[in-house]
Amino acid sequence: MSPKVSIIIPVYKSEKYLSKCLESVCRQTLDDIEIIIINDGSPDNSQTIIDRYAASDSRIISISKINEGQGVARNVGMKKARGEYIAFVDSDDWLEPEMYQKMYEAAKKNDAEITVCNFRDVSSNFHYGKSKNLTAGLFDLNSENRNDFIYDYFWGTAYGLSVWNKLYKRSFLEKNQLEFLKETIAEDFLFNFFCVVHAPRILVIDEILYNYYIRPDSISHSPKPDFMFRYMHMVDTFKRYIHRHEKHKDFDIFIPLLVFTAVSAGMYNIYSVNRSIVDMTKEIKKVKGLPVYKFGIKNLAFGKSTDLYSNFITKFFVRLTSLLLFLNFDSIASVCQYIRFRVFTDKKGEV
Q1: What is the per-residue pLDDT for 156?
Q2: Whole-angstrom Cα Rg for the chain
């Protein structure tokens, strides 16, 4: 008989945090689970820790492979999974004991393809940050309020960016052939966007069940070369995907927002390392020739996609920056983003 939930945990350089993570997974009040741990070529002693837990818990499936990135590791776990639902956990985070009990029961009761819980950030000195201000309920993505929900999901409250606070119905993922892209930039974001394209219902639980540990050496907080260029290619992959499926073409309205997210995240990748406006401008030069960039920036400068932004200040900065980029005033656009990061992001810790 299949387990209720398959929990997939990619592991890479996590020996300092792995025991706490696995302890919280093994002690879930939902007993009928399988725990799939993928050692993604980790060079440290993570495998020793995995072996110790696997020896004492028969629900653990241990897989070792060469390092190919978190997305590929998750895909390996998804192919192995037998559970009715699939969950993902980062190997440096930990769960509340009743996380999957509560999420599974809620998902079954509401027949939701995706179930989302609240979470909190935990700093490296174990200071607990604020949780998201979520609106609980079952949301119909075929309703007239779909665009408002999707905006809030990814850009407003932004609780849809990650995969680790969610429960996915396995039959839904398999039916739509959903998997992670091989790219190691924003793979969670794009995976969830592909999911939203197909999911008729998303259930939101406003209860903190996941602890997201912000470690100083985290992969997601390290400088990445050609970040904007690689991110933009992922946006282009999504654009081409929805254009191949006629019934999903109305998602085109979100492509400009994804383009600006790529631009903003690419600039912030530079800003967080050396705060160089010159280097931020150089990043823009690398993407200016891409059709998806031109499409997105022109739409944000003159079209209706900017109207999706609910915050007036955000809307102003996006419209202004996009107009400057469209007119090839890249250095001035970089200055605008620098000011935005300096005034707003440094205080909030988000782009």
Answers
A1: 87
A2: 20
